[in-house]
Structures are given as C-alpha cells and as structure tokens.
Design a protein that fits this description.
Length: 181
C-alpha cells in the first residue's frame, strides 16, 4: 500500500507531464497541498482511530484507490489538485494506523523495534515506488492514465483482503471467548 501511495506522491511530476496539466510550479504546488493535507490528516487520525479502531485504514484504501481512477481520467488541474489533496488527507489513516498498531501488539519493551520495522518497510516501499511506476509505464507503453487504474484495482484487492482477514480474526476471537473454537 505504501508503495502505491508513494508512486503518486514522489512521482507526481511524471503524472503532471503525462497528462500535460502544468509545469514544475504546479507540481510543487500540488505536492505542497498533499503534504499539508497529510499533516491535517495526521492530526485528525487520533480521534478517528478512537472510533474506528483497527478499521481506520479501510476508508483510506478506498479513497486512494478511487483517486487512481479519478487521476487517470482527469484532464483538469482543479480536479487533479482536489483529488491529490483528498489522497494526501487519507494517507495518514493508513500509515499512522500501522505505527499505532505495531506498538499495541508487541510488549512495551519492543515498541521501538516494531516502529523501526514499520519505518523500514515504508522506506523500502518509497525506494521501490519509482521503479515500479517506471517499469509499469515502460511495460504498458502508455502513460499514467493507462497504468493508474491497475494500481487502483490492486488497492481495492488489498481493501477486500483486509476486510476478510479482519472478519476472520473477529470470528475466531469471538469463538475463543465463548469456547467454541
């Protein structure tokens, strides 16, 4: 998931050039907007996490998946900028969740190690993002408009698997508490 977000964020210049939406100044502006929206989402995360708990990242997956489809179809700076702002706001509900969750599932003495592992995974995803997008563009012979929907479908698949896994765990835990399993 992180790699799919980083493909949008770090490779936004490729998208803007492919769609002929603007110049370097526009790339800088929408990158800044995404960053500001990510900061706002990070601040809001705690309150939403309190309500949704381990499901807090599900809406983010769908928002970013839908974002890939919208960006592929968009031929407008305004639509692209708004969608990227929404994606920027959604991203923390994924990455903040994993930083939070990893500290909840390990003994307190291991929380530093667990957050380091999550950070390492994010770093690897960041490093791979440009390569994956570049290879996908080369393999398709097209531009971002052609490959972004594929990434959107991958995110939808991750969303479905996340829901199924969460439900199976919930049923198993419920069975364990009642002695049925």
């Amino acid at each position: 998931m992180a790699m799919l977000y980083f493909m949008i964020f770090y490779m936004i210049g490729v998208y803007v050039a492919d769609k002929q939406l603007g110049d370097e100044a526009f790339v800088g502006a929408i990158t800044s907007v995404m960053t500001i929206c990510t900061a706002i989402g990070s601040i809001v995360f705690g309150g939403i996490y309190r309500i949704l708990r381990n499901k807090v990242y599900w809406p983010a997956l769908m928002v970013i998946a839908i974002g890939y489809f919208v960006l592929a179809a968009a031929d407008s700076q305004i639509i692209a900028a708004v969608m990227l702002a929404i994606i920027g706001f959604a991203w923390p509900f994924y990455f903040c969740f994993f930083y939070t969750y990893c500290t909840e599932i390990v003994p307190s003495g291991k929380s530093g190690l667990s957050t380091s592992i999550v950070a390492s995974a994010n770093g690897l995803a960041m490093a791979a993002s440009s390569q994956v997008l570049t290879y996908a563009l080369e393999a398709s012979g097209g531009g971002c408009a052609q490959v972004y929907p594929v990434f959107g479908f991958v995110l939808i698949a991750i969303w479905v698997v996340s829901i199924v896994v969460q439900r199976v765990r919930s049923v198993r835990l419920k069975g364990c508490s009642t002695g049925e399993v």
